[in-house]
């Protein structure tokens, strides 16, 4: 139980909870839409069982993703996807949930929640696998704890979370930069770049320890995280300002 006194463990757990809350708002909307036609007596059951099924499925997906991250260049690709997800968080597209069908049958509503969560959980899975990657043997425990803590917040406190994000936009900015931070760390610790036993013809800027975890210099560690966070912030702000400019020009053209 020594890991419970490790700052790295609690930092990673905090990152996972933040990621789940920031990227899980849509999931809460889907749950509400899927259960909206259920009789009041069954609505709570639909939410609970649908959410439970979604949690189990997501844990399996994350465990699978964490295993895949040991393959060369998958962390590299995952880092690029995380940067894209972080940018979308700062400069979101306008998307609706009108295609989510409500049902007056309990099992149908539960199925809708699980299937929709599966489709929408790609971003969560990549981000959480990245956040837990350096926790070694306790990484899976981190994932489960993070989900157990954050899912009830998402499901029962989604409206509060949404209002907080609207009132304090820096929360969204912080979340996007957090994804960029994790992406930077994922990219430089890809096995292709640090593991001498993997693609030995490639130049390496690090190594791996006896547990198979990446070992890189402190300078590269901090620089990669900071560059990743700043990249997401810069690209996100650029897209938002460009859209605002296009909107202004369009309005002037129609005036």
From TrEMBL:
It is found in: Membrane. Keywords: Membrane, Transmembrane, Transmembrane helix. Pfam families: TerC. It comes from the Bacteria. Belongs to the TerC family. GO terms for cellular component: membrane. This is Membrane protein. The chain crosses the membrane at residues 12-35, 47-67, 138-156, 168-189, 220-240. It is a multi-pass membrane protein.
């Amino acid at each position: 139980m020594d890991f419970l006194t490790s700052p790295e463990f609690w930092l990673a757990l905090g990152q996972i909870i933040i990621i789940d809350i920031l990227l899980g708002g849509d999931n809460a909307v889907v749950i509400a839409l899927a259960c909206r036609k259920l009789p009041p007596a069954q609505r709570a059951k639909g939410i609970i069982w649908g959410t439970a099924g979604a949690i189990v499925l997501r844990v399996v997906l994350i465990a699978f993703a964490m295993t895949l991250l040991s393959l060369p260049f998958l962390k590299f690709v995952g880092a690029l996807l995380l940067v894209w997800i972080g940018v979308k968080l700062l400069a979101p597209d306008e998307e609706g949930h009108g295609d989510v069908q409500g049902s007056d049958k309990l099992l149908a509503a539960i199925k809708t929640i699980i299937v929709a969560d599966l489709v929408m959980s790609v971003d969560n899975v990549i981000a959480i696998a990245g956040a837990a990657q350096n926790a070694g043997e306790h990484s899976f425990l981190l994932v489960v704890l993070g989900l157990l803590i954050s899912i009830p917040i998402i499901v029962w406190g989604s409206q509060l979370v949404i209002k907080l994000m609207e009132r304090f936009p820096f929360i969204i900015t912080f979340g996007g930069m957090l994804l960029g931070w994790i992406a930077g760390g994922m990219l430089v610790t890809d096995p292709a770049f640090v593991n001498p036993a993997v693609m030995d013809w490639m130049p390496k800027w690090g190594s791996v320890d006896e547990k198979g975890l990446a070992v890189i210099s402190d300078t590269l560690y901090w620089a990669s995280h900071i560059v990743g966070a700043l990249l997401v912030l810069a690209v996100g702000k650029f897209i938002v300002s460009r859209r605002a400019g296009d909107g202004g020009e369009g309005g002037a053209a129609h005036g």
